[in-house]
Amino acid sequence: MIICVLFYDVRQTFSAALRGSSRWIARDSLRSMAWHCNGTTNQEMVTKLKDAGILATDRAEAAMLAVDRAKYCHEPDPYLDRPRRIGYNVTISAPHMHAYALSILSDQLFDGAKALDVGSGSGYLSACMAFMVGSGGRVIGIEHIPELIEISTRNVREDNPHFLKEDRIKFVVGDGRLGHPADGPYNAIHVGAAAETLPETLIDQLAPGGRLICPVVAIKGFQRLQDLLQVDKSTDGAITKKKLMQVSYVPLTDPTTQLRN
Fold first, then answer.
1. Mind giving me the DSSP string for 179-219?
2. Is 126 a catalytic residue?
3. For residues 246 and 224, is the Cβ–Cβ distance under 8 A?
4. How far apart are CA 15 and CA 222, in angstroms?
5. 69-83 as b/e, with b when 16 or more CB fall inside 10 Å?
6. Please, which of 78, 93, 169, 255 could form a disulfide with 130 given CB 3.0 to 4.6 Å?
7. Where are the beta strands (DSSP E) in the chain?
8. For the chain, how many structural domains are there in total?
């Protein structure tokens, strides 16, 4: 459920993030740009994302090849590198944002891992995560609008029905801001909308060694910005936080506000 424009030097900033660097480039020093890795097929889209340095791990690449975006984006030209509407005032994210998320979370989406996708929308990213965690893992996609749960379930059934048969993916209706503790703790948590403050409830649901990525509103002077934050929980429970990049997401909110906007 992301509408996203990135503000940074893609290759330098993202490479630094994957290396664990704390380097952060101020927005004022960067040019505004959105990467366009358009394809006419799923394979072409994935290849362009990899060539651009955005799709940065082999496992993330394999996931995006195995999950056909056209089964989740039902508008013409589904492989364009931009967000597309799926109804109920939400979108399926641009492919480059999916590539970033899967690359950043690759180490936590290991075989047998548990993952939570907050704001699962079309089900696309949840399905990619389900591919990465394998038949022994499990992904929970959470949305607060029941119709979106129906849409995402249907999309997965048409693309990779064995994910549902193996119970490695489950979509639930709920307030994503509260997470889904019943199936936690999670090795990986992805939040697909911008929170006003970092949701401590979600951090609590991270397993030791787990990672959360979440866009969070940041007020800088007279500007209302968003930082994509990475939160890591060490094996002893210590929490570290890091800014990865500046982004622009739809708000993480309640269903009434979402439908009104």
1. --GGG--EEEEEE-SBBSS--HHHHHTEEEEEEEEEEEEEE
2. no
3. no
4. 30
5. bebbbeeeebbbbbb
6. 169
7. 6-7, 32-33, 84-87, 90-92, 114-118, 138-143, 169-173, 186-191, 206-220, 223-233, 239-246
8. 1
Contact 215, 236 (CB under 8 A): no
Copy the structure tokens of residue 159.
Answer: 């693309």
Report d(CA 193, CA 251) in Å as an integer: 5
Dihedral of alpha carbons 158, 156, 73, 78, sign: negative
CATH number of the structural domain spanning residue 107:
3.40.50.150
In terms of residue numbers, what domain contains 239? 100-260
| 3 has pLDDT over 70 | no
Q: What pairs with residue 100 in β-bridges?
A: none
Which of 39, 161, 46, 29 minimizes the C-alpha distance to 98? Answer: 46
Q: Domain for residue 203, yes or no?
A: yes
Q: CA-based diameter of the chain, in Å? A: 51
Catalytic residue from among 15, 22, 93, 152: 93
User: Which residues are CB-contacts of 119 (< 8 A; sequence separation ≥ 6)?
Assistant: 1, 2, 90, 142, 143, 176, 191, 192, 193, 252
Does residue 5 fall inside a structural domain? no
Q: Distance between CA 196 and CA 203 in Å, rounded?
A: 15
Interval 157-187: pLDDT, tens? 999 999 999 999 999 999 999 999 999 999 9
Length of the chain counted residue by residue: 261
- d(C-alpha 133, C-alpha 139), whole Å: 8
Q: What is the pLDDT of residues 203-258, one digit of tens each?
A: 999 999 999 999 999 888 888 889 999 999 999 999 999 999 888 788 787 766 66
